[in-house]
Amino acid sequence: MNNQTTKDLNWTPYSITLEEAQQRVTNWIEPGPVTVDPTNMRAFVVHREDFVELLNQHDTAFIRMYIGIKPKEGSDETEACLSLVSAARQSEIVPDGDPEIIVDLIGEVDVMGEVFNYEIYDFSHPCPPMCDISSPLFIGEADERCA
Protein backbone atom coordinates (compact mmCIF):
# COMPACT_ATOMS: atom_id res chain seq x y z
CA MET A 1 0.00 0.00 0.00
CA ASN A 2 1.12 3.56 -0.63
CA ASN A 3 3.10 5.18 2.17
CA GLN A 4 1.76 8.64 1.36
CA THR A 5 -1.16 9.68 3.53
CA THR A 6 -3.77 12.34 3.08
CA LYS A 7 -1.90 14.36 5.71
CA ASP A 8 0.93 14.67 3.17
CA LEU A 9 -1.31 16.24 0.55
CA ASN A 10 -2.72 19.69 0.08
CA TRP A 11 -6.42 18.82 -0.08
CA THR A 12 -7.41 22.47 -0.38
CA PRO A 13 -9.32 23.04 -3.61
CA TYR A 14 -7.82 25.69 -5.79
CA SER A 15 -8.90 27.27 -9.01
CA ILE A 16 -6.75 27.82 -12.06
CA THR A 17 -7.07 30.32 -14.87
CA LEU A 18 -8.63 29.46 -18.19
CA GLU A 19 -5.24 30.03 -19.85
CA GLU A 20 -3.55 27.60 -17.44
CA ALA A 21 -6.24 24.98 -18.04
CA GLN A 22 -5.94 25.44 -21.81
CA GLN A 23 -2.15 24.96 -21.62
CA ARG A 24 -2.52 21.78 -19.57
CA VAL A 25 -5.05 20.30 -22.01
CA THR A 26 -2.88 21.36 -24.95
CA ASN A 27 0.08 19.58 -23.30
CA TRP A 28 -2.05 16.43 -23.24
CA ILE A 29 -3.51 16.68 -26.75
CA GLU A 30 -0.35 17.97 -28.47
CA PRO A 31 2.39 16.72 -26.14
CA GLY A 32 5.44 17.55 -28.25
CA PRO A 33 8.51 16.68 -26.18
CA VAL A 34 6.40 16.32 -23.00
CA THR A 35 4.80 12.89 -22.75
CA VAL A 36 3.35 10.87 -19.91
CA ASP A 37 4.00 7.21 -19.23
CA PRO A 38 0.55 5.61 -18.72
CA THR A 39 1.76 4.12 -15.43
CA ASN A 40 2.25 7.71 -14.20
CA MET A 41 -1.50 8.31 -14.43
CA ARG A 42 -3.22 5.10 -13.45
CA ALA A 43 -5.92 6.94 -11.53
CA PHE A 44 -6.73 10.16 -9.71
CA VAL A 45 -7.93 10.69 -6.16
CA VAL A 46 -10.33 13.57 -5.57
CA HIS A 47 -11.65 14.34 -2.12
CA ARG A 48 -15.44 14.29 -1.67
CA GLU A 49 -15.45 17.85 -0.34
CA ASP A 50 -13.78 19.04 -3.54
CA PHE A 51 -16.60 17.61 -5.64
CA VAL A 52 -19.09 19.26 -3.29
CA GLU A 53 -17.28 22.60 -3.75
CA LEU A 54 -17.55 22.23 -7.52
CA LEU A 55 -21.18 21.07 -7.41
CA ASN A 56 -22.07 24.05 -5.24
CA GLN A 57 -21.39 26.41 -8.13
CA HIS A 58 -24.73 27.75 -9.41
CA ASP A 59 -26.71 25.43 -11.74
CA THR A 60 -24.03 22.73 -11.81
CA ALA A 61 -25.66 19.49 -12.89
CA PHE A 62 -22.55 17.75 -14.25
CA ILE A 63 -18.79 17.81 -13.84
CA ARG A 64 -16.58 17.61 -16.90
CA MET A 65 -13.01 16.44 -16.35
CA TYR A 66 -10.27 17.42 -18.75
CA ILE A 67 -7.00 15.47 -18.77
CA GLY A 68 -3.88 17.59 -18.85
CA ILE A 69 -0.19 17.69 -18.11
CA LYS A 70 1.21 20.22 -15.65
CA PRO A 71 4.60 20.95 -14.12
CA LYS A 72 5.20 18.85 -11.02
CA GLU A 73 5.53 21.14 -8.02
CA GLY A 74 9.14 21.62 -6.93
CA SER A 75 10.52 19.66 -9.88
CA ASP A 76 11.49 19.93 -13.54
CA GLU A 77 9.20 16.95 -14.22
CA THR A 78 5.57 16.95 -15.32
CA GLU A 79 2.57 15.01 -14.11
CA ALA A 80 -0.89 14.20 -15.37
CA CYS A 81 -3.73 16.21 -13.89
CA LEU A 82 -7.45 16.79 -14.16
CA SER A 83 -9.03 20.18 -14.69
CA LEU A 84 -12.62 19.98 -13.49
CA VAL A 85 -15.41 22.33 -14.52
CA SER A 86 -19.08 22.72 -13.78
CA ALA A 87 -21.42 21.81 -16.61
CA ALA A 88 -25.15 21.97 -17.29
CA ARG A 89 -27.69 21.22 -19.97
CA GLN A 90 -27.70 24.03 -22.50
CA SER A 91 -31.47 24.37 -22.04
CA GLU A 92 -30.93 25.30 -18.39
CA ILE A 93 -28.52 28.10 -19.31
CA VAL A 94 -29.99 29.84 -22.35
CA PRO A 95 -33.57 30.20 -23.58
CA ASP A 96 -34.35 27.70 -26.34
CA GLY A 97 -31.14 25.78 -25.54
CA ASP A 98 -30.87 22.15 -26.53
CA PRO A 99 -31.54 19.83 -23.55
CA GLU A 100 -29.31 17.15 -25.14
CA ILE A 101 -26.19 19.35 -25.18
CA ILE A 102 -24.12 19.64 -22.02
CA VAL A 103 -22.08 22.86 -21.90
CA ASP A 104 -19.13 23.82 -19.71
CA LEU A 105 -19.62 26.67 -17.26
CA ILE A 106 -16.34 28.61 -17.25
CA GLY A 107 -15.72 32.21 -16.23
CA GLU A 108 -18.58 34.69 -16.38
CA VAL A 109 -21.66 32.93 -17.72
CA ASP A 110 -25.07 34.47 -18.28
CA VAL A 111 -27.58 31.98 -16.88
CA MET A 112 -31.06 32.99 -17.98
CA GLY A 113 -30.27 36.68 -17.52
CA GLU A 114 -28.17 36.44 -14.35
CA VAL A 115 -24.35 36.40 -14.54
CA PHE A 116 -22.35 33.93 -12.43
CA ASN A 117 -18.59 33.38 -12.24
CA TYR A 118 -17.49 29.75 -12.58
CA GLU A 119 -14.05 28.52 -11.54
CA ILE A 120 -11.89 25.82 -13.12
CA TYR A 121 -10.52 23.54 -10.43
CA ASP A 122 -7.54 21.25 -10.13
CA PHE A 123 -7.65 19.25 -6.95
CA SER A 124 -6.73 15.87 -8.35
CA HIS A 125 -3.91 13.80 -6.94
CA PRO A 126 -2.51 11.25 -9.40
CA CYS A 127 -1.64 7.62 -8.82
CA PRO A 128 1.22 7.30 -8.40
CA PRO A 129 1.79 8.16 -5.68
CA MET A 130 -1.81 8.03 -4.34
CA CYS A 131 -2.49 4.42 -5.37
CA ASP A 132 -4.48 1.52 -4.03
CA ILE A 133 -2.41 -1.37 -5.30
CA SER A 134 -4.91 -3.83 -3.80
CA SER A 135 -7.68 -2.53 -6.08
CA PRO A 136 -8.88 -4.96 -8.75
CA LEU A 137 -8.50 -2.02 -11.16
CA PHE A 138 -4.80 -1.60 -10.41
CA ILE A 139 -3.43 -3.40 -13.47
CA GLY A 140 0.23 -4.36 -13.72
CA GLU A 141 2.98 -4.43 -11.16
CA ALA A 142 3.43 -1.76 -8.50
CA ASP A 143 6.82 -0.11 -8.32
CA GLU A 144 8.60 2.33 -6.03
CA ARG A 145 6.40 5.20 -7.24
CA CYS A 146 3.29 3.67 -5.71
CA ALA A 147 4.54 1.18 -3.17
UniProtKB/TrEMBL annotation:
Domain of life: Bacteria
The name this protein goes by in its record: Uncharacterized protein
Organism (species): Hymenobacter aranciens
